[in-house]
Amino acid sequence: MIGRKNMGRPSPVLLVLLVLGFFFATYNLLTIVMHHKASSSENLSADGLKLVEPVRLMPEETKTDEISKSKYHVALTATDAPYSQWQCRIMYYWYKVMKDKPGSDMGKFTRVLHSGTPDNLMEEIPSFVVDPLPQGLDRGYIVLNRPWAFVQWLEKATIEEEYILMAEPDHIFANPLPNLAKGNHPAAYPFFYIKPAENEKIIRKFYPEENGPVNNVDPIGNSPVIIKKSILEEIAPTWVNVSLRMKDDPETDKAFGWVLEMYAYAVASALHGVRHILRKDFMLQPPWDLEVGKRFIIHYTYGCDYNLKGELTYGKIGEWRFDKRSYLSGPPPKNLSLPPPGVPESVVRLVTMVNEATANIPGWET
Fold it and tell me: Would you say the C-alpha torsion 169, 34, 25, 207 has a positive or negative sign?
């Protein structure tokens, strides 16, 4: 196991042995989304919104706990690539807008930069530089740097808040976000494609039967999660090790692909006996979630493609589109065109918020 002391830099020999044989598993996003739509069709209302209970408390005793009023530290891992930088700038802009509004429990903010050296956003965004994995070790799966970045940051940084929100660059705060955790029970967003029970054979390689039933592994990733700092300090080294072991196992790597690190966090949490409060109102994901409502974070991971009639053309480039992957080498321009009539409110709100940020961030186009 990778310990938490004497961790100035990773041991290349140890990490090479753990991840020898890595290969990068790409994914077909369209297949996942279509599966999601099919599996959800029985629970849709007439307007297409999924009828779900927005909050599910786990375990049972959390129902009687008080919601924590403690501040949380907003932390996101990032690289110095232009694609990551422009997303971080927009994310930080909306953090500043929402931080002091009624209902917010936001504390300070840190971009945990795992590129190893400072970049040109150090003065604009509060940042903490940590080491990446040794060169080539992630085999193109750059997300493997995330758990290792958190281990280093937690070990070296001075973090005043009792809680931490693990966020990502492609998150926009749509409403002031309170601390959704309850004491020692973190809060997390449940992802439809994280299915421990359906992958029990693989999960058992890392979460043996003697640890308990497989449904102890929550259907989550590490982000968004609000968690006590002391608990994350215990989970993070295990998260690193499980991630590396999963990537080193060909069956697991093939089965989990681009969500492998998410499964690793879920398993690592379960190994420490940590259960999460599942909050469906934590986040929305356009274009599949149609309205923002009272949900807190917009996650713009999916491309939004529509024809001029306002009809979704997912999987086919639309006459109107917004897709973050269109801007891999540099930021999107200011004043993006708004969607045509008929496009869901969530997509309109997303583009409007991107436009507001780019109009107000100094030196955006440079």
Answer: positive
Average pLDDT over residues 275-288: 98
User: What is the C-alpha to C-alpha distance for residues 71 and 104, in angstroms, rounded to an integer?
Assistant: 9
Report d(CA 219, CA 240) in Å as an integer: 18
Q: Which amino acid appears at position 6 of this protein?
A: N
Q: Which sign does the torsion angle of CA 78, 324, 294, 187 carry?
A: negative
pLDDT score, position 16: 38
N residues, the chain: 366
Give residues with Cβ within 8 angstroms of 307, minimum separation 6: 313, 318, 319, 320, 340
- Amino acid sitting at position 251: E
List, in order of start, the domains of the chain with CATH numbers: 72-278 (3.90.550.10), 287-360 (no CATH)
Q: What is the pTM of this model?
A: 0.84
Token pair of 198 as six digits:
């359906």
Pairing of strands 163-167, 106-113: unpaired
The one-letter amino acid code at 168 reads E
Write out the two tokens for 125: 């965004």
Distance CA 94, CA 268 (A): 31
Confidence of residue 321 (pLDDT cuts 50, 70, 90): very high
Burial class (CB in 10 A: 0-12, 13-18, 19+), 243: buried
According to the 3-state scheme, what is the secondary structure of the chain?
CCCCCCCCCCCHHHHHHHHCCCCCCCCCHHHHHHHHHHHHHHHECCCCCECCCCEECCCHHHHHCCCCCCCEEEEEEECCCHHHHHHHHHHHHHHHHHCCCCCCCEEEEEEEECCCCCCCCCCCCCEEECCCCCCCCCCCCHHHHHHHHHHHHHHHCCCCCCEEEEECCCEEECCCCCCCCECCECEECCCCCCCCHHHHHHHCCCCCHHHCCHHHCCCCCCCCEEEEHHHHHHHHHHHHHHHHHHHHCHHHHHHHHHHHHHHHHHHHHHHCCCCCEEEHHHEECCCCCCCCCCCCEEECCCCEEECCCCCECCCCCCCEEECHHHHCCCCCCCCCCCCCCCCCHHHHHHHHHHHHHHHHCCCCCC
- Sort 193 into a burial class: Cβ within 10 Å, 0-12 / 13-18 / 19+: middle
Judge contact between 174 and 298, C-beta under 8 A: yes
